[in-house]
Automatic annotation (TrEMBL):
Keywords carried by this UniProt record: Cell membrane, Exocytosis, Membrane, Repeat
Xref: InterPro entries: C2_dom, C2_domain_sf, SYTL1-5_C2B
CDD domains: C2A_SLP-1_2 (cd08393), C2B_SLP_1-2-3-4 (cd04020)
Protein name in UniProt: Synaptotagmin-like protein 2
Alphabetical list of Gene3D superfamilies matching this protein: C2 domain (2.60.40.150)
PROSITE patterns with a match to the protein in the record: C2
GO biological process: exocytosis
GO cellular component: exocytic vesicle; plasma membrane
GO molecular function, a single term: neurexin family protein binding
Organism (species): Menura novaehollandiae
Calcium listed as a keyword: no
Encoding gene, per UniProt annotation: Sytl2_1
Protein location: Cell membrane
Length: 349
């Protein structure tokens, strides 16, 4: 059934009032840094003003420093957000798409009480040129609200594969309304095929070989349509943790499948030490990564749990399963000793 099978124990005290974190591996630290920066391009948009005006900027790539530079000069005739006071407090924000999680956002300073802000700032991305050329630049203008209720003022999206890199001059571009793909939340990262099974304590009889505590079996089959971050393809692998345990005992990973955006892993992991009540408070996190020599790049993931936001009475940000992920986990809980098959979309975590 699978190329490898791993068995590890569910390691933490179920009766503690604080989550047991254990020692973070360097890989898990990188997951945390990614999840802190993953926001929708349009997160926090509370405004309803129509996009208008123009933005002046230039693009350049510094070959020596391997750095993509966005020279944001100024904007003109932006929409007025606060009509009573006749003001907008605009700033400019950029993402590299489709993998905004990997590179994160950059933004200028906020210019207060003006619809004609002048920035003269450079937003920088450390990125290889060949990777940059399969990205799109999303540049958007926003009104900054003190309470975080920011308003979208307009955007422009540029396909960097077709950009004229000899053009380093500042040019004016009209700001457009939000693109339908982003408004509809399209952020396709691939789809994972997997099966899970829960074996309750003592459910297989009193044979000495049977587990004294319950087990969760996770069979990672394959992934389709992964993000391709470089022309040669993607070298992917899957990491697994059972949260809140992030210790090395909880950490498991598959082998690396090279140059394939549709990798077949066929890898089974078994976690023991589970009691039935733990299923309400635990979360299986499966993340897919692109393997490179110096660092691994996050491609997408899923979290299987009840999505309550709580683990053993403690509020946690990782208990955020989608409706599909929750339904998959609940089906497993209700069908002991049976494999439950699923096809779940990868997402930003």
């Amino acid at each position: 059934e699978s190329d490898t099978a791993s068995e590890i124990s569910f390691q933490f005290n179920r009766h503690k009032k604080t989550p047991s974190i254990g020692s973070h591996s360097s890989d898990m630290a990188s997951v945390s840094s990614v999840s802190g920066s993953v926001l929708s391009v349009y997160s926090g948009d509370f405004g309803s003003v129509d996009a208008q005006g123009t933005v002046e900027f230039a693009l350049d790539y510094d070959e020596k420093n391997r750095e993509f530079q966005v020279h944001v000069s100024q904007c003109k005739d932006l929409a007025v957000v606060d009509e009573k006071k006749g003001r907008s407090d605009p700033y400019v924000k950029t993402y590299l798409l489709p993998d905004k999680a990997r590179m994160g956002k950059r933004k200028t300073s906020v210019k207060k009480r003006t619809v004609n802000p002048i920035y003269n700032e450079v937003l920088r991305y450390k990125i290889e040129k060949m990777v940059l050329l399969i990205q799109k630049l999303n540049l958007s203008v926003w009104h900054n609200d003190p309470l975080g209720r920011n308003s979208f003022l307009g955007e422009i999206e540029i396909d960097l594969a077709s950009w004229d890199w000899s053009n380093r001059k500042l040019n004016w571009y009209p700001l457009k309304p939000r693109s339908l793909s982003a408004v509809n939340g399209v952020d396709h990262r691939g789809v994972m095929s997997l099966s899970i099974k829960y074996v309750p304590p003592g459910s297989l009889g009193k044979c000495p070989k049977n587990p004294p505590s319950g087990e969760v079996h996770i069979w990672v089959k394959d992934v389709k349509d992964l993000l391709q971050l470089r022309p040669s393809g993607v070298d992917s692998f899957v990491k697994c943790y059972v949260l809140p345990d992030t210790s090395k005992k909880s950490y498991q990973k598959t082998r690396v499948i090279k140059r394939d955006t549709n990798p077949v892993f066929n890898h089974t992991i078994v976690y023991d030490g589970f009691h039935t009540e733990d299923l309400k408070d635990a979360c299986v996190e499966l993340t897919v990564w692109d393997h490179e020599k110096l660092t691994n790049h996050f491609l997408g993931g899923i979290r299987l749990g009840l999505g309550t936001g709580l683990s053993y009475g403690i509020s946690v940000d990782w208990m955020d399963s989608t409706q599909e992920e929750v339904a998959f986990w609940q089906e497993m809980m209700l069908a002991a000793n049976e494999w439950i098959e699923g096809l779940l979309p990868l997402r930003s975590l």
